Amino acid sequence: MTGTLSQREYPTGSVNAVNVAAWPVPTSVPTTTTSPARTSDSSVPARANLAITERRPGKRRDFMDKADIWPAIHAERKALGTDLQGLTDEQWANASLCDQWTVRDVTAHMTATAKITPPAFVAKLAASGFSLSRLQEKDIGVEKGTSPADTLARFEAIVTSSKHPPGPADTWLGETIVHAEDIRRPLGIRHDYPAGALVRVADFFKGSNLIIGAKRRIEGVRLRATDAQWSHGAGPEVSGPLLALVMAMTGRKAALSDLSGDGVATLRDRS
Question: What is the pTM of this model?
């Protein structure tokens, strides 16, 4: 995660600002070696599936309760772990949508995030000179292990973890979805994320300037999902799938090709 688009750092002296996910800096679509597109086969726990994707009496299909966030995170981690099985060494070394991070790096980062508590995070940040990027690189080096198989085993071990750095649960739902797509998209893997999870993440990001600056990035444009009951803002329109809107809100230029409207150019200039 980043305070600006040029560095993965918290503002100087802003320990109190360390309360959201550690998003790496997104860049334009990297040059990658991709595999043929395939569809993710996510076998999610029954509770998470019912909580998110099926209609409850009096509730829209795209509504998610706060109590359903962690079951959704666990389900999406499990689905990602399944997609990572069988990757070649070349695919593990593929560039992700995160600047200078490979598929293997992002996976290791997700593992590290799920192993840390708020007090431990602050202590590790201090030991890293209050540089989030240095903290992240250290953790990635540890959680990558000695081989891609080791990286995957470490990730699969934290699928049901509810540990996290400082920040609300919505942060970690967003981190799970966005980083999973940072990995899947360059590899050509398609995955249907739960509508309720995407709506909740979009609602969280639209009002947050912390670290990733989504609120500033989308200021002055109207976002409209074409596959969900969700819209936000006023100005030149940006329309498309809600997943693409979420990725664009977090600065992923790769997602802009899935969007249309007069406001797309504004988001491209701000990403």
Answer: 0.79
Neighbours of 97 (CB within 10 A): 29
Query: CA-CA distance, 231 to 258, in Å (whole number)?
Result: 16
Ordered DSSP codes for 33-45: --PPPEE------
Residue 6, amino acid: S
Q: Is residue 170 part of a domain?
A: yes
**Which residues constitute the domain of residue 144?**
15-28+35-200
Confidence of residue 63 (pLDDT cuts 50, 70, 90): confident
For residue 99, being part of any structural domain is answered with yes
Q: Are residues 233 and 189 in the same domain?
A: no
Nearest-angstrom CA–CA distance, 250 and 92: 23
Using 50, 70 and 90 to split pLDDT, how confident is the model at 109?
very high
Q: Is 86 part of any domain?
A: yes
pLDDT band at 39 (very low <50, low <70, confident <90, very high): low
The pLDDT confidence band at residue 40, using thresholds 50, 70 and 90, is low
6 domain-assigned: no
- Give yes or no for a contact between 263 and 233, defined as CB atoms under 8 angstroms apart: no
The CA-CA-CA angle for residues 212, 18, 64, to 5°, reads: 65
- CATH classification at residue 116: 1.20.120
231-232 and 237-240 strand pairing: unpaired
